[in-house]
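Reviewers of the previous submission asked for a worked example of the structure-prediction workflow described in the proposal, so we include one complete record here. The input consisted solely of the amino acid sequence. No template or homolog information was supplied to the procedure at any stage.
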Amino acid sequence: MADPARTRWDLVVVGASFAGAACALAARRGGLRVCVLERKRDPGIRLHTTGIIVREAAEGTALAGLPAALVRRIDGVRLYAPNLRSMGLNRHDYYFLATDTPGVMRWLASELERSGVELRLMQSFTDARRTTGGWQVDGLGSCRWLVGADGAKSRVAMRAGLGRVREFLYGVEHEFEGAALCEPERLHCFIDRGLAPGYIGWAAQNPRGMQLGLAFRHRQNRAGVPDIERLRRRVGERLGLDPAVSPSATRAGLIPCGGPVRPLAAPGVILTGDAAGIVSPVTAGGIHSAWRHGEAVGTAIALHLRSGGPDPAIAAERAAPRFRGKRLLREAFDRLQCDWPFDALIGTPPLRWAAERIYFHARGAGGGPAGRAP
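From that input alone, the workflow returned the following C-alpha cells.
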C-alpha cells in the first residue's frame, strides 16, 4: 500500500458539501489532483440543509444536471403573518426546486468520483501542519492548497487561525415521507416572534413528501431548541398534515447568519461555504452563494497552480459576497421584530414589494428563506 505520508495532492478539500463539491469539481476541471475528505460514511445522512435550490443555482451551476427524480419545482411562496392571514407571492420567471436532499448529496458524491476526484468517506480532518509549499494533512499526505468546507464549526479555520463564525440561527426540520401539502406548488413561510424570533418557520413539498421546519436566532441566553411541535399544532391542519403522522426524518443544526468571516483565507488555505459564513444574513439562503464561491475558489487555485494566475487567497476574499444591505436588515430584524406590523400589513403593497425582493432575488436581494436552514 502507498505510504499516506508521501501522497501528494494539489488540493485537499475538507467537506463534501455544496461548496466543497463545487470547489473540487472546478479544480479538477482545471487539471488538478484533488482529494475530498468527508467524515460521514454516507454523504446523504445527518444533513443540516433543507436542500431548497433557487433558480440561479438550478440553471447556472452544475446542479442543472440533477436527475429529475431528485427535484420538485415550486413556483411561488405563501407568506403567513403571526395571525395566520396570508398572501401569495409569485414572479412569472422565478421558481425554487425542493429536493430529495439525501439523494442530491449522494449524486454530488458520484459526480466527484466520476470527474476523477478522490473522495475519502469516513475520513475526518484531524490536523495539518504547514510545510514548505503547502500542508501535511494527518493520515492523508501533503497538499499545496487546503480548503475548509467543513461547516460552521470548521476545524480547518481553527487550525489555520482564520475567521470563525460567531452568529447563528438554530434550526430544526421534520420530514414526512409520502405526506402532501394542501398547496404543494408554494413554499409556505411563517412569521411569528414567539415561535421564531429572528427567523421563520417553513413548509415545502419535496419529491419524497413534505418538510416542515422552524429556526430562531441562536443566543447564549436563549435556552432550548425551536418548538417545532408547537408550530405543527398551529399550522399542521392548514397545511394538510395529518396530526397522527410521525416524522420520517429529522434535521437540526446551527446556520451562520452573520455574513462572511474575516479573514477567510491565508497563504495556502481558504474557507468556503458555511465555514466561511457564505450564507445570507437575512434569509439563510446559502446553496447558490456557497456553490458560486466554492467554484470561484477551485478555479482560482487551478489557474494559480497551472498557469501562474493571481493569488487564490485574494481571489477568494474578492469572490465572497458582502451582504452589506442584508447585514443591516438582519440587525433591524433582530432588534425591532414585532408581530403586529406583519398582522397589519399582510397583503398590502408595501409588504408585498419587500417580500418579493427577498424571495425572488429582485435587485439581487434574498437567497430563498430556507436554502440553507437548518
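The two ends are 41 Å apart (CA to CA). We consider this example representative of the routine output the project will generate in years two and three.
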